[in-house]
Amino acid sequence: MARSAVRFVLDGQVIELHDVDPTRTVLQFLREDLGRTGTKEGCAEGDCGACTVVLVEVNRDGDDLSLKAINACIQFLPTIDGKELITVESLSPAGGELHPVQRAMVEQHGSQCGFCTPGFVMSLFALYKSNANPTREEIDDALAGNLCRCTGYRPIIAAAQAMLAATEGEDRSDWLRQPADSVQAPGERLAQLKALAHEDSLEIDHAGRHFFAPTTVDSLAALVLRNPDATLLAGGTDIGLWVTKQHRELETVIYTGRVAELAEMSVSSTHIEIGAAVTFTELMPVIIGQYPGLEELFRRFASPPIRNTATLGGNIANGSPIGDSMAALMVVGASLVLRRGDATRELPLDAFYHDYQVNDLAPGEFLERIRIPVARSAAIVQSQKWSKRFDQDISAVCTAYYLELDGDEVRHFRMACGGLAPIVKRAAHCETALSGQRWTEEAVERACAALQSDFRPISDARAAADIRMLAVQNLLRRFYHETKGDVESTVYTYGRAR
Amino acid sequence: MDAHAKSGAKSARAVGKPLPHDSAHLHVSGRATYTDDILEPKDLLHLAVGMSRKAHAKITGIDLADVLRSPGVVEVCAAADIPGDNNYGAIVADDPVFAEQVVEYVGQPVFAVAATTVDAARKAALKASIEYEELEAILDPLTAVEKQSFVLPSETLVRGDPDKALEDAPHRVKRRVSVGGQDQFYLEGHIAMAIPQEDGGLLVYSSTQHPDEVQAMIAHATSRLAKDIVVICRRMGGAFGGKESQAALIAIIAAIAADKTGGPCKLRLDRDDDMIMTGKRHDFVIDYDVGFDESGRILGIDFELASRCGMSADLSGPVNDRTMFHCDNAYYLENVRIVSHRCKTNTVSNTAFRGFGGPQGMFAIEYVIEDIAGALGKDPLEIRRRNFYGKEERNVTHYRQTIEDNIIDEIVDKLVTSSEYEKRRADIQAFNRRSKVLRRGISLTPVKFGISFTNTLLNQAGALVHVYKDGTVQLNHGGTEMGQGLYIKVAQVVADEFQIGIDRIRNMAADTSRVPNASATAASSGSDMNGKAAQKAAAKIRSRLTEFAARHYSVTEAEVDFSDGSVRIGNRTVDFAELVQLAWANRVSLSATGFYRTPKINYDRSTFSGRPFFYFAYGAAVTEVVVDMLTGENRVLRVDILHDCGDSLNPAVDLGQVEGGYVQGVGWLTTEELWWSDSGELGTHAPSTYKIPTCSDLAPDFRVELMSGSANREDTIYRSKAVGEPPFMLGLSAFHAIRDAIGDSERSAPNLHAPATPEAILRAIVGDGNE
Q: d(Cα B580, Cα B504) in Å, to the nearest integer?
C-alpha cells in the first residue's frame, strides 16, 4: 500500500499534508506555510544552524523514542513523515514560562542579536535531553553546527552548563517524562508516533514531479531499475543544496531513509556491514570502536545536525573529492555491495571512482551496503583532516593511513587522500616507496617525494596547490612522528589535555 | 538643566546593573520579530537580484524574456526603471543600484525580478541572458596602485621629519605585509520590505544601521521627498558595519519594485548572494620602514598603505582615514609619514566593519613592534612599553590631538601580573626547546581606540520619550539595535531618570517618523549619543513634573524627589503613575525630545589635525596559542583580557561586547579568509567555505575582566565608555602569539600574513611569505 499524504506531529497535533512539493524544505514549511518564524534561515546550506529543529522518532525496536537535532533548511518535508517535529516555539508557550534551556540562555546573556539563538536553543535542547553532565568538549561538539557571530560563545557554553545545573537530579535520559511542551502525558507520545510510523510506502506526485519512499530494499531496487535517472535521496545534506542553492528541479526522487534493510548495521568476526542509509551518528561509535585512530576525523566530520541525517552511503555514492569518509575506508580495505534489480556485486571502494563525479554504478544500480573489515590488531590506522577550522569545515586535504610493521620493517602500508585529485584515491607511488622498507625518517622522506607523482593538486578557496602538496607531505611526516611517539597530540587535543 | 544635573547624583537603580538584553526572552523563544518575520501584507511579491558574472565588462545586451516567462514572475526592474538617481552612495555618488552600460564587479546587481514566491524569484533570476564585452579588470590593491586606480585621492599625513629620523636611526627594518579582509557574516542577511502607502507614501522595513540614510537614498532614487518615506527597524540579526551604508541598496531595490508593481515587495538576499553582492572589511597591503634605537624606541617610521576599496568609494574615505589615525595604536610616533591609497578594484565595494579601518592600522604598528623586538632579540612587551604614549609628554598624536585620558600603562601592568605573562613566557620558551612538532607562543597587545565619528557633523543624536497616563514610557531614539544591547542600556538611563522600573519602559523600533535625521548606529557611539539624548528628553519631562508637583502641592521644587518608583513631594509620597496621571489632568506635556551633540571635538580633515575624538577607549589582551609546525594548525589555549568600559552602563552587555569582539577579531586574523579567483569571483561566499569561529575555537581558559574604577574623565553618559568596536582589536594578540610560536633564532620575525590560516602559517614556516 502506498499513500501520498505526509504526516507528522507538531505540538502534539498530527499534521497531514496533501500534494506536498517533495523538495519543499521543513524550514520553508514552517516559515512560509505556517508563519512559524522562530526558526531562522541563516545560510540555507546546513552550515550555520540558525534553522536547527529537533526530530523525534520511534527507535528500531519500536519500544522507545529517540531525538536528534537537524537542519530544517535542507531537510525535505516528506522525509519527516512519521516523526515528531519540535521547534523553538514548542519549548515554551507564548508569554508563558521559559524552558530551562531558554531560561539559562537569558540568565547567562547567551543572546545578543538573537538571530542564531533559536538554533542554539534547539541544539542545547537536544543536549539537555541526552547528556546530563556534558564536558566542555561535548558541549563544543553539540554546538559545532551552530554559528554565533556576536557572543564569542562563552555565555552560551555557560548556559549549557547552567541549564543542567538548574535541573540537577532530574532524569533527563528518559526525556519522555519531560515532554517539550508539557502537554502530553508520558507514553502518549510513543503511542502517537507508533501509530504514524507504519509500513506503508510514500508516493507523491506533485506538478509532474515524483517522490517515492519505499520501505523494503526489494521495492527500492525495482524503483531504481524502473527510474534509472531518478535522484536517490539519503540524508539530503548535499542534495538539499541542489535545491536551495542551485535551484534545480528534481523530477523523480527516491528516498532511501525508510528502507528497513538499508538502516541495518551489523558486526561479524570479519566485517562491519553498514546499510547505505545508516547515519554517521549511528555508525561512528561502531567504526571508532574498531579504529580508534579515526576518532578525530569523525569528530570533525561536519556537525551533529549533519551527522544525524547524512549517511555513509550518501557520502560514498555522492563521491565528492573532498568527502571525508572515503580515504579512511579505502585504506582499511572497505568494499561496496552494489545492487541492480535482484543482482548484487561487490567492489573494492578504491575501484569505485573513475573520475570527477564518475563512478562504477551502472544505470539502475545503487549502493546497498558497505563492508568494512574489522581491525587487525597489528595495524595502525590513522586519518588526518587539514582545514582552516577545527569544526564543521571541509577538508583542504584529508589523509588516511594503514600501517602494519614487522619489527622495523613495513609489511603493509596504504595511504589514501582526499582534496588532492578529482577523486579520493590511494597514493600508489607513495605506498610503493615504503613497501618493504624500514620505517625510518629517510624512507618517509622518499615517500613524501613520491607523493608528487601521485597527486597534482589544484588551487582553490581552501588552499593553494603548492601548500596542499606541502601539507600532505607534512601530514605523512607527522604520522611518522606519531608512530614514533615524538608527538603525543594534535593542537586540538593538546589544548584539551591541559 | 537643573534636573539633568541632579540625575548624576541619584542612586542608580538600573544603570550599572547587569540586566539581560531587553529582547533576550524573545530571542530564546523565537518570538523576536526580525524583518523577515513581520506578518506579510496581502499579495506581497518577493524579489531576487540578477547579478553580473563579470568583474569588468561592457553590457552589450540584456534579454530578460526568459526571466519574465518563468513561473510566478510578475515584473522585472532594471536601471531604466529608476525614476531618480541610480545611486546609493551617500558620500560619493558612484554606487549604481543597477548597472547600466558597465559592470564593475562579479555580483553587481543588474536587474531584479518580482515573483509570487522567493523560490520563483530566485529561479527566474538565473534565466537572464546578459551579453558582455570584457574589459581589463583590476583585482588587487597592488595592481591598482601600479595603475593608479583609486576611488579617492591618496592621502598623506606627516609629523616631524621621518626621512631624517630614518636616516639617522641605528636600526632599520623594512617590510611588506598583507592583512586580509573580513565578511561581516551577520546571521541575518540583508533584507528590506517596501509597502506603498496612500498619496505616494512608502513604508519600508529595513535591516539597517542607518534608517535615515535608507530614507534619503530611497527618496533620491524614487524621486520622492523624505517626508513621504518611513523607514523602520526594530532589530537586526547582526550588522557589524555591514548594514551601515549597504542596506540602502537592498531597500532601494525593494522600493523601486514596489513602485513599479504598485504593491508590497520584499528582498531578502540569499546568503551566497549577500556575501557576493555586499561589501566587507578592507584588505590592506602595508609597506613600512622603521628606524629605532637600541632600546627599541621608534625614531622614525614611514607607512605606505594600500587598501582594497572595491569598485566605489562607499565609506572607504573615512575607513582609510581611521586607519591612518590608528597606525599609532598606543605608541608615540614622533617622526611619521603615512601614505594611504584608496584602491579602486573590480571587486565588491568594501564598507564598514567593526573598527572601521582602525584594526588594519593597529595591525600595521603591532607588526612593526614585533619586528623591532625580533631584530633586537627582546620581548615585544618591552618594546611596547618603551613606545607607549606618555601622560604629560610624548602625549600628542600624529594628528595633533593631546591624549588626556591615557591609562594604557595601568591596564598593561595589571594584566601582566594577573596573566602571569613573564612566567608563562619563560615556560613556553622551555617547552618550545624540547617539543618537536608543537610550539606555543604568547603575546600581549594593547588597544587605544578613538571614540567619535571622525566626520564631526555626524556626532549628534535625537530621542523622543513619551510618558503615558499610566506612568509607562515609550522610548524612541535614533539608535538601532543590532544585538549590541543599545536598547537596554538607553532604557536603563531613562529608567533612572524617572526612577521607575525598567519594566515600565518599552523600547520602540528605530523609526524615521519618530526621530529624524539620525546618524548611523556606528563608530561605537550608540549608547554615548543616544543615552545622552534620551536622558535629556526624560529630564525635560521630569523637570515639568517637578515643576508641576511643586506648584500643585505648594512646595519648593527642591522638595520634589523621584525615587524608587515614587515621588516624594514635601511630606507626601505618590506613585510615579499617580503624579503622571495628575499632571496629565492638569494639562502638562508628557512627551519630549532630547538632542545631544558630542562636545569638544573639532577636526580639520584637510590637514588631518585637531581633535577628532572625544576620548579614547583602552584595553589589552594576552593570548597563548599552540601551533603545529608541520601542519600550521593552531589553537588558542588561554586568553586574559582587561578592558576599559569606563563606568559601565551594563557590565553584562559590555562583557558580551568585549568577549564577542575579541573572538571576532581572532576570526579575522586566523580562519576567516576571503579568496577570489583569477577572474574576480569570490570563492568564499557561504559558511561552507568562509569560516568564522565556532564554539570549539573559544579558548578553554578564557578570562575577561572589565577595568574597574576607570570612570571616563569626559562627561559621557554616567561616565561610561563606548565598547562596540575597541575590543575587536584585542584579537591582534592571537595573531602575534602565533607569530611568536613559529619564530625562533633563525626566524626571528617570520613573514606571516593575515589571516594566519594553516596555509599562511606553513608559508611563513618555510620562508615563503614574501610577497
A: 13
